[in-house]
Amino acid sequence: MSRPERSRRGSALPAALAIVVVAAIASATLATLARTEILLARNRAAAAAALAAADGCAAAVVSEIPAGWGFDALVLGPDGVAGTADDGGRPAPAGCAATVRAAPGPVDPARAVLRVDAAAGEGRRTIDAVVGRAPQAGVPALLWLTDTAALADVHGSLTLAGMDAAWLTAPFASLAAPFDPAALDGWLAGQAPSVVVSPPARAPLRVSEPPLAELAARARAAGAAPGGTLVATGAPPLALTLTAGDLHVTSLGRGRGLLFVDGLLDITGTFEFSGLVVASGGIRVASAARLDVAGEVWLGSGATFAIDGEARVAADGAALEVADRLLPLPRRAVLTSMRDAS
Checking CA distances to 9, which of 24, 152, 217, 226 falls within 20 to 30 Å? Predict the structure, then answer.
C-alpha cells in the first residue's frame, strides 16, 4: 500500500469520529427537547385543568351566595365581627377554597372580590373574581319558595304563565327554591292537571331562600303603609304595603306595587294584584275564590300554599320594575369579571 493511501485512511478516522460525536450530540439534544416539550405539554394541561377547576369552583361558590343587596355580611363572616378567623369564608366544593373580601373603590354598586384557590391533578390555580348583583330584581321565577312546606296538593286550579310578551327576556321559571329542582319538577308533574304551566316553560331554579326578614325591615324603614291599599273599584293606588299579621280578602281586593303580608294571605273573595306579593305565612285560596297576580309571589318559611279555588300567576317584568322602584329588591349574586392571581 502506498504512503498516500495510508495517509488518506488515517485522516478519515478522525472525521468519522467527529461525525459520530456530532450525531450523538444532536440525538441528545433532540431527546432533551422532546422531554422538555412533554413536560411543557404536561404543565400546560395541568394549568388548564386547574384553571377550569378554579372557574367551576367560582361559579359554584357564587351560586350559593344568598340573594340580597350587598356583601357586608359575607365579608364579616358568620359571627358578624370584623377581624376574626371566619371573615370572608365561603363553603366551596372539594379541591378548592374560597374567601370573600370587600372590593376596592366605591360602595355603589355593591361588589366583592372572591378569591378561589383550586387544585386539579398536578396543577394549582388562584383567581380573583369580582362579584356583583344581578340587574334583574329578585329571581326570574313566578313562585319563590323558602322550603318544601308550600308544596301541598292543589285541589283547585293553579296556572303558572312564565312568558311576558312585552318583556324581552327568557321566560320566567315556574318555581324557585333552595333545594333540588328535581323535587320541584316532581311536584309540578304530580299536580297535573290541577297545575298548568303555560308554554314556553323554563325549568325550576335552585336558588337561595328569599331574604324576607331583611325585606320587611327595609319596608318598615321606607315607611310602608300598614294596609288599606287594596280597592274594590277604580284604579288601585301604587303602594308599598306591609301588613302585620294575616290579611283577609273577603270580597274584591285589587292592588298594585309591593304587598308584604307578614302572615297568611287568606282569600275567600277575589284578589287581583300587579307587582310583587310576599306572604311570610303563605297563601290560602278558598273554594270559589280567585287569586290573580301579574308579577311574582314569594313565600316564607313553613308557608302554606293551599289552592282550593282558582289561582293564576303570570310574569310581568314591568310590574316588578315598578315594585323595585318602590323598594329596592334583593338580587342574585353574579360573576362580573375574573383574573388570574396565581
Answer: 24
